Sequence to fold (244 residues):
Amino acid sequence: MKVFVYHTPELVPADQTPDCAIAVDVLRATTTIATAIASGAEAVQAFRDLDELMRVSESWPLEKRLRAGERGGSKVTGCDLGNSPLDCTPQIVEGCRLFISTTNGTRALQCIQNAPIVLTAAMVNRRSVVDYLIRTQPETVWIVGSGWEGSFSLEDTACAGAIAHSLLTETGEKPTDLIGNDEAVGAIALFQQWERDLLGLFHLASHGQRLLRLGCYEDLSYCARLDTLDVLPFQKEPGVLVKF
Fold:
């Protein structure tokens, strides 16, 4: 297994396809996706474009659909939900399909959707992702951070590092055999530095500060919890994620 980390969708090689691609948007899309599926959502369908989300979801039964839209950290007018994982309780999402479009996370999913295996990862479901990779041993793994409008983000890189660090420690592989690029080395170092204070890191991160200004204190606390959900969102068709 060779693990590559890319900080944003824009940095993903356009002429290559990995055996397994993992989208990461810790604050908050992939945390929300994992939480929704863990809470019993039938599926989460991701869209880059809000108009397309509205058009496609219109054909879904009203009582079985939820529209989640977020731009700039805030809920989109006309949607049922924003992008808070705290809203994805079993009482709200169980049995429904969540149609979601966010500022960054759904862009990352779209750029890797043609890989043969597509997963989503966050701090909350890191353990499930690592267990899957160790069990299946894909030859090449891309961990793609969502960033913020094309820029590097601390929280996504730390999550990529959390995955790569666990793979290193649990497989016994030599770093030179497992690590595919310099970004993966940096991601591991970042995670090791902040492993005991992920919430502190999220408060330092520019997007974390943006969410704090919007009053999303509990969201950050929830997103910073490591290995709390035993769920693996798995793409069954382009843009549609289900429980593996």
About this structure: The radius of gyration is 17 Å. The beta strands are 2-6, 20-24, 43-46, 65-71, 74-75, 97-101, 118-121, 140-145, 233-237, 240-243.
